[in-house]
Amino acid sequence: MPLLDVTFDRMDTALLLLIAANIAFIGTHFVMSHPLRAPMVSALGPTGFQIAYSLVSLATFAGIYFAFIAAPQADLPGTGEIGWAIATVITLPAMILLAGSFIGNPALPTPMAGAQARAEPKGVFTITRHPMMWGFALWALSHIVLHWSLRTTITATAMGVLALVGARLQDRKKQALMGEAWKVWEAKTSYWPRLSGFAKAGPLPWAVGLIFFVFFTWAHVPLGGIPAGIWRWF
After folding, report:
1. How high is the pLDDT of residue 166?
2. What element of type H or E holds 60?
3. Closest listed residue to residue 195, CA positions, set 134, 117, 133, 116
């Protein structure tokens, strides 16, 4: 009985550390991206801010990694083959959105952002103006539906919250930074995904998304030790 108590105590501690690490990662992202962004840029300059942001992000992400590997691996019953099939189907549009998010994205800090925001939406932006965020959110959902472990559910939920709440907060930040250009972009695009937009996304996001899908699901074995996607059945 004492041994069992010690085991549960260790599990509880590992999961509590994982929850704390995820909160630290999300919390620092939100405060540095929004309320603390202007003061930090003023104090450190744009380059100094990016360095500080990156260091804090890496440190808090490392905290998630170490807490994750210390937590139990498979302490939930799982959803079986049906769950894996659903997760596989969800992952494909996630990869298409992620692939297309790097093409003509006015949310990225580039000199062309203003012109891109005033242009007609193309590619994955006919689906949503936040394709990268929704790609991460769908990736998170694909892991949640597996119901495989508490550590996966905790971390995936945190990443999903970061993506979708972050997308809403990004709209506010871009309105302040880009003014009328972002308001024009918002009027022509949608926060919520429009499924009909996948037919208009174009061949490049689909092609690169498929490559991402095949590669990252294949990499799930050497990195995570579990076959995922099509590799689970081949």
Report:
1. 94
2. helix 37-70
3. 134
Nearest to 230 by CA among 219, 216, 214: 214
Nearest alpha-carbon partner for 170 in 34, 4, 6: 34
Write out pLDDT tens, residues 25-47: 999 999 998 889 989 999 999 99
Residue 60 above 90 pLDDT? yes
* pLDDT category of residue 6 using cuts at 50, 70 and 90: very low
Radius of gyration, alpha carbons of the chain: 20
Q: Which residues contact 202 (CB under 8 A, 6 or more apart)?
A: 100, 122, 123
pLDDT > 50? residue 8: no
How open is the CA angle 224-54-113, to the nearest 5 degrees?
105
Q: Which 8-state DSSP code applies to residue 212? A: H
Contacts 24+ apart (CB under 8 A), 26-30: 26/158, 26/161, 26/162, 28/56, 28/57, 28/60, 29/57, 29/162, 29/166, 30/165, 30/166, 30/169
Q: What is the DSSP string of 12-51?
A: HHHHHHHHHHHHHHHHHHHHHHTTTHHHHHHHHHHHHHHH
Torsion of the alpha carbons at 53, 59, 62 and 64, rounded to the nearest 10: -80
Distance CA 67, CA 214 (A): 28
Please give the Cα distance from 20 to 218 (Å, whole number): 30
pLDDT at 9: 53
Q: pLDDT tens for residues 151-184?
A: 999 999 999 999 999 999 999 999 998 999 999 9
